[in-house]
Amino acid sequence: MHRNHDLYQFFLEKTWDLTEEWYKNVDKEESGGIYTSEDPAVIERVKKQNYEFHKQFSEVFHKEEEAFFRELESWIVKVAQDDEHLRTPLEMILQEFFNTQEQYLNLLEQFVEISQGQYDEKQIALWRRMIIRTIGEVVTWFTEEYNNHSQKRLQAQQALILELSSPVISLTEDIALLPLVGDIDTARAKIMLENTLQQCNKIGVSQLFLDLSGVVMIDTMVAHQLFQLIEALSLIGVKTTISGLRPEIAQTAVQLGLTFDHVSIKSTLSSAIKSANIIAG
Q: What residue stretches are annotated with the STAS domain (predicted)?
């Protein structure tokens, strides 16, 4: 039986002391991330998070294990998705968990000492194993949550980059430009299709210049999606003019059986814009 009211109370009374001791001993030069911050608000928040963890952890000697982990879940999820922690290397965070484990093992020794032989070695060993096992489970759980949120954050950043990489630029009230630069893969082409349709509809575009001069090569799937974009634009009343079409891309389109019958083609963006009488020339 690992639950013990006296041990629970002893740990609970030491929670703030544990936090102060922990923060004092954190290597603020080597740890990186949240632990190196000199912002008083960040320091206060990280101390509060640590203090809340100690209060939660003390409950392992007071509550049923299932109830204990159920209540600890909110702390793990909250801290794992905290921006400051997500900017902190995971190995640094895990090291602090193991430092905390050492704090608890030392605190247990203090409790045993003041208990003056009240508990046998078997009971003490059980408590040690409980501390180590619980920290181990917390580390595993935290790592999973941290990685999940890091992945979601990365995906959101990638989506934003992809969205910004295909901007619809207004040239006049109803004429716009979509300049494409760099490699276009299937993921970027899909976002470009959705984003371009939304932007053209939002700003009331009737003619769109699609400039491909910055695109060196696209595969057959992406070429097909580009023509799907042109067809979709026509359905919402947007006429598309393609400029800067490289021979390699044209050849890919021909191999796919895609035609340019309903698309205006210009060799350069400059000539495309001149054809719309936006600039003199």
A: 165-276
d(CA 252, CA 216): 12
Regarding the domain delimited by 169-275, which CATH topology (the fold level of the hierarchy) does it fall under? Answer: Transcription Regulator spoIIAA (3.30.750)
Residues in the chain: 281
What pTM, to 2 d.p., does this model score?
A: 0.60
Query: Where are the domain boundaries for CATH 3.30.750.24 in the chain?
Result: 169-275
Q: Pairing between strand 264-266 and 239-243? A: parallel
Dihedral over Cα of 45, 51, 53, 59: its sign: negative
Higher-pLDDT residue of 32 and 232 is 232
Contact 64, 1 (CB under 8 A): no
Selection from 262, 249, 244 nearest residue 184 by Cα: 249
Name every residue whose Cβ is closer than 8 Å to that of residue 70 and which is 6 or more positions away in sequence: none
pLDDT at res. 281: 43
Instruction: Single out the residue of 184, 7, 240 nearest to residue 105, CA to CA.
Output: 7
- Cα–Cα distance for residue pair 137/56, rounded to 1 Å: 14
Domain with CATH 1.10.490 in the chain: 5-160
Average pLDDT, the chain: 86
DSSP-derived letter for residue 34 is: G
Domain 5-160 has CATH 1.10.260: no
Contact 36, 29 (CB under 8 A): yes
